[in-house]
């Protein structure tokens, strides 16, 4: 039975994260230490150095040959369930749409696994849960965020192409040409082929250091696990000196981001509630179904459900902002997710500990 000591362990692990968050928030909103431009520089430091090296450290210590493939399968099933529901909603509901389906998928499935999940679940269930959360984070970075990036790039390119085709001025300005007899001809504008979209996506991924961190970390993990190698101390030390700042700097950066917003609910109360329900209810529910379908039970099942209720992925907001797809909804989900996650996740922990899963 869960006791106050168990709850205190969770709070003890989470509280330092909120300290870093408040310090970042206060340095802008209360003490006016940093300007917006300086905040952007700090965010770049986090995005390009501390967080990728933090991800690399965890990914490189995963043993791919001992991964819990039932857990990974449950995660995949839960996301497929969400996709099926969103497709039906987009096709059958007057309020459904392709764009909102993308945003809803992000809200329901993409979590801040490493920054919040590792210290939280380690306090709840020990090292076993850390291994599962890291596996989930690596798969999310390699597969699901890549798919999200592809879908967003496909939407953007398709939208640009269609708007150009619908604009007579744009058509007239464009690929007319003259033939060999100097007669003018109109060249039809066609949609970009699939290979062109894939090329754009890979170029985007090549500029994303977090993608490098996941792929390089997993590559080393395969090599090290196969031949029982240890990372050279000079390399591991170089990674650790920056990665140790990963959690604190990520939370500090989130505080800066919160302070730069005009209000916490940038998208309005109705969409805020919609996002919270998807993040903390729909995602865990789908994960519960997927976990039971593959036969998870005990603490592994509990970890699966709780990690699905972690706060919103910061990367999903970065993508939403870059591609102009409901960034106000994602920013609200990120901010309120960090604020509400502690009591909600402790509540999940208490309920699941009393259950017979």
TrEMBL record:
Main location: membrane
InterPro entries named in the record: Auxin_eff_plant, Auxin_Efflux_Carrier, Mem_transp_PIN-like
Subcellular location: Membrane
Highest rank taxon of the organism: Eukaryota
GO BP annotation list: auxin polar transport; auxin-activated signaling pathway
Record field: transmembrane: 15-34, 41-59, 71-90, 97-120, 132-152, 201-223, 235-259, 271-294, 332-351
A Gene Ontology molecular function term of the record: auxin efflux transmembrane transporter activity
GO terms under cellular component: endoplasmic reticulum; plasma membrane
Role description: May act as a component of the auxin efflux carrier.
Family: Belongs to the auxin efflux carrier (TC 2.A.69.1) family.
Protein name, entry field: Auxin efflux carrier component
Gene source species: Protea cynaroides
């Amino acid at each position: 039975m869960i006791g106050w000591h168990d709850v205190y362990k969770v709070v003890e692990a989470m509280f330092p994260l909120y300290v870093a968050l408040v310090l970042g928030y206060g340095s802008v909103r209360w003490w006016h230490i940093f300007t917006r431009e300086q905040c952007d520089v700090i965010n770049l430091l986090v995005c390009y150095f501390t967080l990728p090296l933090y991800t690399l450290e965890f990914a490189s210590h995963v043993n791919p040959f001992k991964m819990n493939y039932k857990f990974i399968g449950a995660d995949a099933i839960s996301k497929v369930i969400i996709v099926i529901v969103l497709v039906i909603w987009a096709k059958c509901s007057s309020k459904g749409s392709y764009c909102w389906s993308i945003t809803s998928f992000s809200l329901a499935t993409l979590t801040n696994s490493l920054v919040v999940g590792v210290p939280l679940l380690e306090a709840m269930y020990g090292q076993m849960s850390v291994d599962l959360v890291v596996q989930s984070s690596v798969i999310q970075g390699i597969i699901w965020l890549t798919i999200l990036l592809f879908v967003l790039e496909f939407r953007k390119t398709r939208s640009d192409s269609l708007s150009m085709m619908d604009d007579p001025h744009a058509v007239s300005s464009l690929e007319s040409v003259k033939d060999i007899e100097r007669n003018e001809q109109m060249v039809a504008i066609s949609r970009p082929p699939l290979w062109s979209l894939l090329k754009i996506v890979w170029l985007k991924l090549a500029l994303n250091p977090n993608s490098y961190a996941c792929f390089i970390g997993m590559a080393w993990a395969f090599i090290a696990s196969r031949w029982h190698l240890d990372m050279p101390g000079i390399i591991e030390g170089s990674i650790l000196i920056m990665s140790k700042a990963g959690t604190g700097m990520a939370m500090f950066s989130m505080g800066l981001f919160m302070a730069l917003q005009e209000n916490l609910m940038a998208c309005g109360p109705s969409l805020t509630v919609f996002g919270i329900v998807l993040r903390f209810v729909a995602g865990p529910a789908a994960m519960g179904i997927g976990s039971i379908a593959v036969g998870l039970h005990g603490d592994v099942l509990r970890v699966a459900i709780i990690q699905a209720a972690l706060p919103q992925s910061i990367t999903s907001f970065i993508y939403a902002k870059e591609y102009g797809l409901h960034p106000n909804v994602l920013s609200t989900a990120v901010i309120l997710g960090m604020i509400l996650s502690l009591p909600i996740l402790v509540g999940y922990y208490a309920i699941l500990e009393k259950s017979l899963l």
